[in-house]
Amino acid sequence: MKKLNGEELLFEYVRDLIYAPQEASLEIDKLPENLHRLGEELCLLGEGLRHQDALAHQFADGGTEEEKPSEERRTEGAWRPAADMIGLGGRAFEAFAESSDERYLFMCNMDTNVSRWSKSIVEEFGLPGEYMYDAGNIWLECIHPDDRELYLQDLNAVFSGEKQNHDVTYRAKNKQGNYIVCTCKGYLLKGDGLGPDIFAGTIYNHGVIDDVDHVTSLYNVYKFMETLRKCKAVKQPVNLLVVGISQFRRINNTYGYICGNQVLQKFGQKLRELMRNRGMVFRLNGTKFVLMTEIAGREETQSLYKEASDIARNELYLGESRVSLVLCGGALSFRKIEMEETAVLAELEYALGISKQEEQGELVYFDDTLHGSARRKLEMIDAIIRSVLYKDFSGFYLMYQPQVQIDGTVIGAEALVRWKDDVWGVVPPIEFIPILENDRCFYELGLWILQTALASTKPIVQNHPDFKISVNVSYRQLEHVDFKTDVISIVQKMDFPPQNLILELTEHCSSVQQTVLQENLDYLRERGIRIAADDFGTGHSSLALLRDLSFDSIKIDRKFIADIVVNPADQYILKSTIQCARDFGISVCVEGVEDVETLEVVDSYKPNTYQGFLFSRPIMLSQLERLFEAPGSPRLVVEA
Ligand code: C2E
Ligand code: MG
Ligand code: MG
Q1: Highest mean pLDDT pick, 36-50, 115-129, 246-260, 518-532
Q2: Measured from the CA of 504, which atom of ligand 1 is nearest?
Q3: Burial class for 181, CB neighbours closer than 10 Å (0-12, 13-18, 19+)
């Protein structure tokens, strides 16, 4: 017989209370700890019901012939208290609903399609009332349009008997208009001729927190880190399997970005099903997922990887058409986790990289692959993270690269972060940002960078009101719920003129949910801050990004500039991009101009500004200040 989980045990108990109160029993010990209190309260209620039931029988057995109800009525009488509960007025429902904090309760009489939902969900989501007719469709209205298909598919599978449990995570809009991540678990209790079918369950409110990935509704990398930390604290052994989707760009190119997200969402949901009762699943950045289980042998891990690969290859559909994905995988086992969580993640990513690049997707164990240089890199990352967490950002500093007009007039500078240490020397951002982005500490670092850049250049801005400082922002920062308000509060606290600040967003930002992105951009732009699209042309949806989001400027990546003198394709791309931006009323900065020949070609397309080694490499603050010592704007003259 299938082993029931805690919630199923509770529902079984409630059902027995309804139909056969004297037989109903619940073993609290079999419930997970978080359901103990609930279980105890239901047992108390059960006692009450049994008592009423016994009284009903006593009356029926002891009364006169006339008073004695017919067999039929007696049966009815026996489950009348319970019928109240199916009538959904029962106290059990209230007790259950009241004692679950972020967990809402619903129960639906499938014959009448009338259901009762807990008061708290009615209030939170502005539903019409606790008692609703056709609540499934009312609730559907609250669910994010992108998630509705997932919700309906899962419900249909339950109602058609394909599976017993409804278990799906989606976003639902609350009364304030914010999307909340909800996990809904439901169970269909068949009446089996004794009464109506009942569909009952709980909806767990994860809140508007940044622990859940917006595309797949799976836990995100932060939650992964937190879970690792907890495992470390209690010395819980874990087994980690990371799977990545190879060549996902192909999907985006073929079906478009929105469908790409749907594929990720479906794959995420399938992984959740795969991991039910086995462990947890998280979405890391991009197309990587981690499956966390208790410590397992290599054979078990290998078979889990195979199951995930089979799902990816055979079970994903967009409408009618099957989408076949190929995975790569890396694994790690810990009897005891001893290192920083970010280092664990870096090891997983490393193993995944080897699987993808050298092993054609075969599962790779980190222990087998560890090379000296990888180990060194991980140690360096560990040192950098410690600088953020425990040493007040020691070792971090900013350099500034001037941005100029064609005649060399400096109109601003981009702040570029570095980290330096006695052991590791100067470390460029490209070495640590992609890894650090996965750590919560990166958010703090981002704010520190912004604050430092503003504090350092404020004196220049005061004397040269046209000077603009550009600060890089990564999509990880944007995903943070406090990002926009934190930026504004720093700008205000420092009394920095917002129109002199440009935030550069990399194209990876497009992986942030579009509405979140738009909301952030609008909020910041309304308050005077300008937004630039950085590394323009390197992502998969550059032009769509221009169309859909409001940018003030774009920075064309140096990849298109490096060979432009000899490469007509790059010339064509540059020319049409500049033309297109101009049509949108957006200004263009060209990055990576290293020599005069390149400048000549680029200048023929008339971008607005330049940034490149030809004019200046990144310089220290003191050098930037020196440039601006004299009144008027400085000019960097280029030697022909
Ligand atoms: P980016 O924002 O596109 O910055 C421009 C990068 O191109 C800088 O490298 C700069 O030194 C380099 N560069 C500029 N002109 C030339 C040139 O003519 N030739 C060549 N070969 N390179 C040129 P850097 O400083 O290594 O930064 C790399 C990337 O790291 C940045 O790309 C940005 O994405 C990221 N980054 C840097 N600082 C920060 C930061 O404070 N926060 C965040 N989130 N990311 C940062
Ligand atoms: Mg930049
Ligand atoms: Mg760039």
Answers
A1: 518-532
A2: 2
A3: buried
CATH 3.20.20.450 spans which residues of the chain? 389-627
Kindly give the distance from the C-alpha atom of residue 589 to the centroid of ligand 3, in angstroms, as a whole number: 9
Q: Which residues of 224-248 are buried (b: 16+ CB within 10 A; e: fewer)?
A: bbebbeebbeeebebbbbbbbbbeb
Rounded mean pLDDT, 406-412: 96
Residue having the nearest C-alpha atom to atom 35 of ligand 1: 429
* Residue of 398, 536, 557, 591 to mutate, ligand 1, most atoms within 8 A of C-beta: 591
Domain with CATH 3.30.70.270 in the chain: 221-369
How far, in Å, from the CA of 610 to the mean position of ligand 3?
11
pLDDT bucket at 624, cuts 50 / 70 / 90: very high
In angstroms, rounded to a whole number, what is the distance separating the alpha carbons of residues 253 and 251?
5
* Three-state SS at 106: strand
CA-CA distance, 323 to 253, in Å (whole number)? 13
Measured from the CA of 471, which atom of ligand 1 is nearest? 41
CB-facing half-sphere around the CA of 60: CA atoms within 13 A: 16
Whether 279 and 295 have beta carbons less than 8 Å apart is answered as no
| Amino acid code (one letter) for 563 | D
Ligand 1 residue neighbourhood (C-beta within 6 Å)? 401, 415-417, 428-430, 433, 449, 472-474, 504, 506, 534-535, 558, 591-594, 611-613, 618
Query: Is residue 365 within a helix (H) or strand (E), and if so which, with residue range?
Result: strand 364-365
State the architecture of 389-627 in CATH terms: Alpha-Beta Barrel (3.20)
R_g (Cα) of the chain, nearest Å? 30
Predicted local confidence at residue 91, as pLDDT:
64
Q: Give domain 6-207's CATH number out of 3.40.50.300, 3.40.1830.10, 3.30.450.20, 3.40.50.1000.
A: 3.30.450.20
Q: Which residues of 399-415 are buried (b: 16+ CB within 10 A; e: fewer)?
A: bbbbbbeeebebbbbbb
- pLDDT tens per residue, range 13-42: 877 776 677 778 888 888 888 788 778 777
Output the DSSP codes for 300-357.
Answer: HHHHHHHHHHHHHHHS-EETTEE----EEEEEEEESS--S-HHHHHHHHHHHHHHHHH
Ligand 3 centre to CA of 403 (Å) is 12
How many angstroms does the Cα of residue 67 sit away from the middle of ligand 2? 87
What spacing in Å lies between the alpha carbon of 345 and ligand 1's midpoint? 24
Query: Where do we find the tokens 């640590």?
Result: 432
Distance 99 CA to ligand 2 centre (A): 50
Bridge partners of residue 108, in order along the sequence = 115, 199
Rounded to an integer, what distance in angstroms lies between the CA atom of residue 459 and that of residue 311? 58
Domain span(s) for CATH 3.30.450.20 in the chain: 6-207
- Choose the residue to mutate in 439, 457, 472, 602 for probing ligand 1, maximizing ligand atoms within 8 Å of C-beta: 472
Question: Chain-wide mean pLDDT for the chain?
Answer: 84
- Atom 21 of ligand 1, residue of closest alpha carbon: 592
- Distance (Å, whole) CA 454 – CA 500: 10
Of ligand 1's listed atoms, the one at least distance from the Cα of 473 is: 44
Nearest Cα to Cα of residue 289 among 264, 307, 319? 264
Say if domain 221-369 classifies as CATH 3.30.40.230.
no
